[in-house]
Design a protein that fits this description.
By secondary structure, this protein is α+β, with helices and mostly antiparallel strands. It is about 30% helix and about 10% strand. The protein is built from eight helices and eight strands. A four-stranded antiparallel beta sheet has the order 2-3-1-4. Strands 6-7-5-8 form a four-stranded antiparallel beta sheet, with helices on one face. The N terminus is likely disordered.
Amino acid sequence: MSSTTKVKKDKQLPDKRSMTTLPKLKSSNEDIIIDESQPTTSVSVHPANKPPPPIFIKGVEDFPGLCTELINLIGVDNFYCKSTTDKLKIQTLNPDSYRTVVHFLRREKAEFHTYQLNEDKPTRVVLRNLHPSTPTELIKSELEVRLFEVRQVTQVLHRINKHPLPLFFIDLEPTDFSQVIYQLDSLLHTKIKIEEPHKPKIISQCQNCQAYGHTKAYCGYMPRCVRCGNNHHSSACPNSRQDPMRCALCSVNHPANYKGCSTYKDLQLRKKPNTNNLNLHNLKLKPNNVKDSHPPTDTPPNHPTYSQTYAQATQNQPPPQNTPPLTIDPNTQMSSFLSEFKLLINPLITLLTKVISSLLDKKK
């Protein structure tokens, strides 16, 4: 590689050693990416059928020059880019192009992060009901006898007291045969159960740069200490345990992995919006499509429907203004009721008399 090409690359992607000369960017939620489009491992779809994960780069100073380098490395039709405020997203179209770009960025010490290649992700299952004292190597060898390609077996510990549990994570090579493990119901003379692992509720955090949304294995950013927030690895922090802490994300007096951090809470709210507020909002916006069977009680006196007679309604005549309320005399109402009752009861009495008379005649 010629010297001119090397200088050109240095202009495109700033070296980590020269990052101190660049203006310091203010930490914000935009600096912590949760890639919702990142493909996840599925049981029914083979990982090889999914596109490679995206690559996010910071500090690109010469985008046309970077495109020229990528075209020389992987070809003109094997990638496309998308720019945001402070990052450049590169999406490659095949695994070989993805690996080539990642190796190029690592070689140039670029500031970037990405995710695990789909075909490199293991098929993880949970093995239940096997005794906690069972060695992980014995489980691995027993599964290999049954022709499973096992990467590793990890025992699950209790979250509080760290005691071993009858739970084991099994990482298999992502082959078609690996799905047969769900048919196992016994292992090492024990009735077992194979399940899919639960999706983690917490957001993954990088132990290198302390940002959320990616992991240390695929991080190319400057290291930041989890305790003091300075640009060094957490294991090399020169401060003692008694020294005050400073979060690398929000600069408050707590470690960067504290789940009460305002940055973490904001990300959780963005990931899981408050459904109660959404339901109330939908209820407020929902139109009332059912007509009320009763007239409103707060109708003003000058409203067209107030004290309107049938004749006025049929003749489209406006009601009289300030019509006095209709008053009903109780005595008049009672007299009307008795008159109507007599009209009903007299025919019944006459009919009953005829029926009784006919019955008496038959008996004679």
